[in-house]
Amino acid sequence: MAGEKGEQLKLVGQWGSAFVTRVKLALELKGLNYESVEEDLRNKSELLLRSNPVHNAVPVLIHSGNPICESQIILQYIDEAFAGVGGTPLLPADPYQRSVARFWAAYIEDKLVVPWDRVFRARTDEERNEALRQMSAAVEALEGGLEDCSKGKRFFGGDSVGYVDVVLGGAASYAKAHEPLFGAKLFDAARTPRLAAWLERFCELDAARAVLQDVNRVVQYGRMLIAKNSARPSNN
């Protein structure tokens, strides 16, 4: 399929990647057509290795033959390269508000996504519980970030979905899978009411419905990752 103005868009990804889902959300919000290429990360394709020779990782967006790597960089590229295409810009026009959005996106990456990854990769219950504790602390701070960014409106971006919404929203199915996997909601209405309401609101968006992974499949995938990594021998 072709993007707007005849430009070719190809997304190299993997169904379970929240980082890939971020890019799908941005493309959907912009109304862009693209070819989705499913990657087998156990047997990486020549296309992936050639397109991202530094990290050999998904997602990679290929636009008219040019590869763009790393999900947040891809989001910013889509926002700039297709600024005239439909949809609300992801990043605000005001430089200060843009810096606030980038701050909270970086916070999500460093303080929530990193321990979230360790939850699935942990070899022991102790390691997993420590990562869950770090996630819980990050979520409490992010509740304040939502209040700061939204100014009491529906999304981090205000009345419409913005950059931070897409960065966090890529993991919406994993947030929904958190309770069946770990016995507690990630965004609990009693503890973080704004984030709990945001999650339900975000998942009802047409763009989210189009690209978010099935939660039951994510639960099965998460259990497989936990079992596999728990069985790995320790290097100590």
Automatic annotation (TrEMBL):
Protein's GO biological process: glutathione metabolic process
Gene3D superfamilies: 1.20.1050.10, Glutaredoxin (3.40.30.10)
GST C-terminal domain ranges (all copies): 94-234
Gene Ontology cellular-component annotations: cytoplasm
Stretches of the chain forming a coiled coil according to its record: none
EC number: 2.5.1.18
Family: Belongs to the GST superfamily. Tau family.
Name of the molecule in the record: glutathione transferase
Organism: Paspalum notatum var. saurae
Record lineage: Eukaryota, Viridiplantae, Streptophyta, Embryophyta, Tracheophyta
